[in-house]
């Protein structure tokens, strides 16, 4: 899984957040878990082209009923949209909650038949006021109407620092929200905030259920973790969760949309790892797997009825450093020296990871902005070629000297740290071993540790309690703004800067980018950010990658316009409301 970038996250075609939910953590960004960049529209590297999409059936007629079973190796954490920071929870959110606005295939904001908004927002000439009209037939799964008060409550709750929402950076530029009537509201900003339209790509929560819970207690409420106490608004509603085994959704009998879902039930089965998922797919125990190991692609493609969809998506992997001393056993972060961080970047054979682990299906990353996106700094960002001698030189310049056992020492502190990643992820398991060996070659002891994703996100990533992590962002927000991840304004819990990184110059540049409306001028600002962040390195940016989606095309059907879209975060569920099963 990845972190969801929460800027409204899990992530998109332009460059979010919402948000590493976690481990590729959700703007939104979401750890491949809620991030911040924009991605270019990808071309397929493995699998059929969109016109040959595995289950396209132009002449086939949708059928109502049946069950779709999907595999995952990561359990969800909470489906409360205010707190989602991981992709497993984001999957469920995408199916059971209606969003205010949705994204079309090209990552444009859209008022779809299943969106709560009736039309695109009206924006004032000064780009400071957004007027929004809601559909008058939308309602919650308990039958209550969805109104402008629900939208206001959702926005006010997320932007309240006492709540601790990872999405706060997307909405804290709001000055006031005026409810004009039950289905109309005006949102006035404190300042011009260019990414704000994508802040409206957001799931709404029910005010009548949550309004009496104190803000600091919301995260611990049963809403989002108990199906019986989670009132939702989407085509399906959550019916069951057996932790570590499965979670299930069923058709929402009170669903209000003009288009109804065809599939009666969707079950997510949780497996120990990705290899076990593939076995379940090939045996027919599941009909879809969202991310199969690259080493298994050819075997899956040879199986009758199974198709693989793979293109570079809005995901990137990284090694994140923690700068807070208390997160280390000896109360000393070894990553504070810029030359030390640059040395680690030179020490890692990133191209070898792309060639040997990703099998050439990814591309190197040198900044938070995906290659080919409008914010991509290109050659302005530093590209750290694999050079262990250069790494050793920089480490020596930063004061590190070999100890008796060959491991570097500085000021009495041994350069040894735990590198955490989510267990069951075959890609990260392989990459962590490469990192361990690469760093050993230059005198650094890194100890990889696989951890249960859901527990890891909740206990380590979200509060920022780890030495270093190998994780990914799923960019659920198409805008390149990544303030929530890299600005010192957004330390945990009210933000996603979980490594406690501080760079005041970059803090100011993120704000400058937000307040610039002209896209060409914004691009120049992000190119400057990309250059500076590639020098200072709060992360070592590794590579962009795709998530190989495997589908049993004899069982799962969709029309051409509803095929999965690899360029979007959660694009493997694109228009799932229109899918059907045989």
Explain what you see.
Residues 26-59 have a biased composition (Low complexity). Keywords: Signal, Transport. InterPro entries: Peptide/Ni-bd, SBP_5, SBP_5_dom. Belongs to the bacterial solute-binding protein 5 family. This is Peptide ABC transporter substrate-binding protein. The protein is an alpha+beta fold and 582 residues long. It folds into two domains: 65-311 and 547-581, Periplasmic binding protein-like II (D-Maltodextrin-Binding Protein, domain 2, 3-Layer(aba) Sandwich); 315-545, Dipeptide-binding Protein, domain 3 (Roll). Helices cover 23% and strands 20% of the residues. It has 15 helices and 27 strands. It has an eight-stranded mixed sheet, with helices on both faces. A six-stranded mixed sheet has the order 17-24-16-23-21-22. A four-stranded antiparallel sheet has the order 7-8-10-9, with helices on one face. Strand 9 (174-181) and strand 10 (184-189) form a beta hairpin. It is globular, with a radius of gyration of 23 Å. The model is unreliable at 5-28 and 33-59 (pLDDT under 50).
Which architecture of the largest domain per CATH? 3-Layer(aba) Sandwich
Question: Helix count?
Answer: 15
Low-confidence sequence ranges? 5-28, 33-59
Mean pLDDT: 89
CATH level 1 class label of the largest domain: Alpha Beta
Reading side by side through the largest sheet, how are the strands ordered? 3-15-25-14-4-13-12-11
Main sheet overview: 8 strands, mixed
What is the end-to-end distance? 29 Å
Kindly name the structural category: alpha+beta
* Domain unit count: 2
Instruction: Could you tell me the CATH topology label of the largest domain.
Output: D-Maltodextrin-Binding Protein, domain 2
According to DSSP, the number of beta strands is 27
CATH-level-4 superfamily name of the largest domain: Periplasmic binding protein-like II
General form: globular
Query: Could you tell me the strand content as a percent range?
Result: 15-25%
Radius of gyration: 23 Å
Helix content: 10-25%
């Amino acid at each position: 899984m990845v972190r969801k970038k929460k800027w409204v996250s899990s992530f998109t075609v332009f460059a979010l957040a919402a948000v590493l939910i976690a481990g590729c953590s959700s703007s939104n960004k979401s750890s491949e878990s809620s991030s911040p960049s924009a991605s270019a529209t990808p071309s397929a590297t493995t699998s059929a082209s969109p016109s040959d999409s595995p289950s396209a059936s132009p002449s086939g007629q949708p059928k109502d009923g049946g069950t779709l079973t999907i595999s995952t190796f990561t359990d969800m954490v909470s489906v409360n949209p205010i707190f989602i920071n991981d992709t497993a929870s984001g999957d469920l959110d995408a199916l059971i909650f209606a969003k205010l606005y949705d994204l079309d295939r090209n990552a444009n904001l859209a008022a779809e038949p299943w969106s709560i908004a009736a039309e695109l927002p009206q924006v004032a000439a000064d780009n400071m006021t957004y007027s929004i009209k809601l559909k008058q037939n939308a309602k919650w799964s308990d039958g209550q109407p969805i109104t402008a008060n629900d939208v206001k409550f959702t926005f006010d709750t997320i932007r309240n620092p006492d709540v601790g929402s990872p999405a706060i950076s997307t909405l804290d530029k709001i000055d006031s929200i005026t409810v004009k009537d039950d289905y109309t509201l005006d949102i006035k900003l404190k300042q011009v905030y260019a990414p704000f339209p994508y802040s409206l790509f957001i799931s709404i929560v029910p005010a009548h259920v949550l309004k009496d819970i104190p803000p600091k207690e919301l995260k611990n409420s049963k809403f989002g973790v108990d199906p019986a106490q989670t009132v939702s608004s989407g085509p399906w509603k959550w019916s069951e969760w057996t932790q570590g085994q499965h979670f299930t959704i069923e058709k929402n009998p009170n669903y209000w949309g003009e288009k109804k879902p065809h599939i009666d039930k969707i079950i997510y089965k949780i497996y120990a790892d990705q290899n076990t998922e593939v076995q379940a797919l090939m045996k027919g125990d599941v009909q879809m797997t969202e991310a199969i190991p690259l080493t298994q692609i050819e075997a899956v493609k040879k199986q009758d009825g199974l198709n693989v969809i793979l293109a570079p998506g809005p995901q990137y992997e990284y090694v994140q450093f923690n700068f807070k001393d208390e997160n280390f056993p000896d109360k000393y972060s070894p990553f504070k020296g810029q030359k030390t961080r640059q040395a680690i970047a030179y020490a890692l054979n990133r191209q070898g990871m792309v060639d040997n682990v990703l099998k050439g299906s990814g591309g190197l990353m040198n900044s938070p902005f995906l290659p080919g996106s409008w914010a991509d700094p290109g050659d302005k960002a530093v590209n750290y070629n694999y050079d262990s001698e250069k790494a050793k030189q920089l480490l020596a310049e930063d004061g590190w000297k070999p100890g008796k056992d060959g491991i570097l020492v500085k000021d009495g502190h041994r350069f040894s740290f735990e590198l955490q990643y989510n267990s069951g992820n075959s890609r990260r398991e392989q990459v962590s071993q490469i990192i361990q060996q690469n760093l050993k070659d230059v005198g650094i002891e890194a100890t990889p540790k696989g951890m249960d994703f859901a527990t890891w996100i909740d206990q380590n990533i979200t509060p920022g309690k780890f030495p270093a992590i190998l994780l990914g962002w799923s960019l659920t927000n198409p805008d390149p703004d990544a303030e929530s991840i890299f600005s010192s304004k957004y330390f945990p819990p009210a933000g996603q800067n979980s490594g406690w990184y501080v760079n005041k110059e970059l803090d100011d540049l993120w704000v400058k980018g937000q307040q610039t409306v002209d896209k060409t001028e914004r691009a120049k600002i992000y190119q400057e950010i990309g250059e500076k962040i590639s020098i200072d390195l709060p992360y070592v940016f590794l590579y962009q990658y795709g998530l190989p989606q495997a589908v049993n095309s004899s069982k799962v059907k969709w029309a051409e316009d509803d095929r999965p879209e690899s360029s979007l975060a959660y694009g493997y569920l694109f228009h799932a409301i229109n899918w059907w099963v045989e």
